[in-house]
Amino acid sequence: MTTQPRPRRAPSGAAVLREDITDSLRAAVFEELAASGYGRLSVEAVARRAGVGKTAVYRRWPSKLELVIDAVSAVAALRIPVPDTGSLLGDVQTLLKILARALRHPLAAQIVPDLLAEAARNPDIARTLEKALRDTQRDITSQVFGRAVERGELPEGAGTDLALDLLTGPLYWRLTVLRAAPTPAYLDELAATIVAALRA
Amino acid sequence: MTTQPRPRRAPSGAAVLREDITDSLRAAVFEELAASGYGRLSVEAVARRAGVGKTAVYRRWPSKLELVIDAVSAVAALRIPVPDTGSLLGDVQTLLKILARALRHPLAAQIVPDLLAEAARNPDIARTLEKALRDTQRDITSQVFGRAVERGELPEGAGTDLALDLLTGPLYWRLTVLRAAPTPAYLDELAATIVAALRA
Asked: Where in the chain is the DNA-binding region found (chains A, B) (predicted)?
C-alpha cells in the first residue's frame, strides 16, 4: 500500500533464480485457483504450471494451505492507487471505479468467492483473508479520509464501520453476488450516499 | 414468499413416501454441502445420509448439479416473514434484523459462499442463485415499499437498484466477508441510510 519502492541490495544470481521461481509459483497458484478452486487445487498442478518439481513448492511452503495464504497475502500487499482528486466526493467516486474494475477482473471474480467459501471451513484462511481485506481497506481510507479532515470536509475521527462497509458492500453484492454491472448513475448515487453517511 | 398455504389433495401412501424421501434428500444435500462444499459433494454421500440408495437420487435428478439447484430453489421459495410495523423505518429495521439472523445461520454461512464460488465457474448455478436472490429481494421489498407508498412515505416507483443493494450489501459484506457481527447502532445507522436513499 505504500507508494515508496522498497530499497533492495543487488541480489546474487542464485537469489534471483530463487525469487523468480517463487514469483512463478505464486502466479501459478492464482491460475490454478481460478481454474480449479481451492478444494480441487493440487500442489502438483501448481508445480507443473510453474515448470518446476513438487520439491520446489515444499521447500518454500509446508502445505497447500500455506502456499495459498502466502499468495493471497502477496497480492493484498500490492500497491493500490489511492485517489487524490482534491475533494472527498471525487476521491470516493474514483475509489468506487477502481473497486468495480478490480472486482470485475476474471481472476478476482473467481478467486475471491472461492477463498471466502474455503474461509467458512478453514479458520486460517478466514483470518488471513480478513486481515488482508481490513488492512487494505484501512490503509486506503485513512489516506482519503485524512485528507478530507485536513480540508475541513469531514470532522476528526470520521469513518464508522458502516461508512467503510458502504464503500465495498453494495458494489460487492451487485458485482459478485448478483453478477450485474453497476451503471454510472448507480456509482454516482452510491458515492453521494457514502459521503452523506460519512458526514452524518 | 406467499402467505397462502398451497391447496393439496390428500396424497396416496406411496406418494407420501416419495415426498418424504425427496424431502430427506433435500435436507441431506444441505448437510453435505455444509460439511464438504459443492466441489467435494458426492451423490453417494447424500444418498447415504438420507438413508436411501443412489438410485433414489438419480430417479429424481439426473446429476449432482440438478440436485443442488433444486434444493437451493426449494429453500429460496420458503416463506420469509415480511415485516409490517406501520412505518418504513420500522419495516427496514426489522428486515435488517431478519437478514442478519439468516446470514448468521451456520448453514447459510457455509453454503451461500460455497454456491457463489461454484457460480463463478458454473453458469447454471449462477443463474439459479441470481434468480432465487432477485426474486426473494423483489417479493419482500415490493410489499414493504408498496405499503410505504400507500402511507405516503415514499413516492410511486421508489426503490432503485442501489436502495435494494443497500439493504443486503453492507450486511452481507460485514457478516460473510469480514465475519464480524453488526452492533445494534450499526443496524440503526444502516436503516436510516437506506430510508434516506429511498427518499432521495
From this structure: 42-61
